[in-house]
Amino acid sequence: MSFKVAVLASHHGSNLRALTAAAARPESAFEVALVVSNNSASGALVHARELDIPWLHLSGRTHPDPEQLDLALLAALTDRHVDLVVTAGYLRKIGPFTLSGYGGRIVNVHPSLLPRHGGPGMHGLHVHESVLAAGDTVSGASVHQVTADYDEGPVIARREVPVLPTDTVETLAARVLTAEHALLAETVQALAIAHADH
Hints:
Layout: E1 3-8, H1 14-23, E2 30-37, H2 43-50, E3 55-57, H3 66-79, E4 84-87, H4 96-101, E5 106-110, H5 125-134, E6 138-145, E7 155-162, H6 169-196
Parallel strand pairs: 1-2, 1-4, 2-3, 4-5
Antiparallel strand pairs: 5-6, 6-7
């Protein structure tokens, strides 16, 4: 029985692409079984359609009531027997029903070394602007468990990326994104193997 992963993404889906590439390798212990986006035009949904991965658009447009939206997400995950939920560039808070149903089985990838440069408003280029403004010499990526508060869950894995004196927000973001892709794929593989051992 394969370890089933659902990926929640709002925009380009580059971390999703890294995960589907990793899942296609012969040694992979997981499969991407579902893609969910709150953005009907997201690159993540385009990629899911290209690979024939089941996908859903769930947002305030499909479910104006936040409680119903949360319940719809939980139902989609349980219906497909998802083992792990990965939020990757997903700009919506996970609701209490999904958090309760998947407690400890939802992870997020964040483009900094948490707890530094995390929390509300810290996404995308804002994170790297904050790193450069702080004068940090090291940044990186973190994978952490998702809780009710943004970027506050226990960190599972991290990867350091040096901040160069010549870095701009864009150059730092590009190097951290490469680290994110590798770290996320390795972490999901490790979680899948650990699950199989139990």
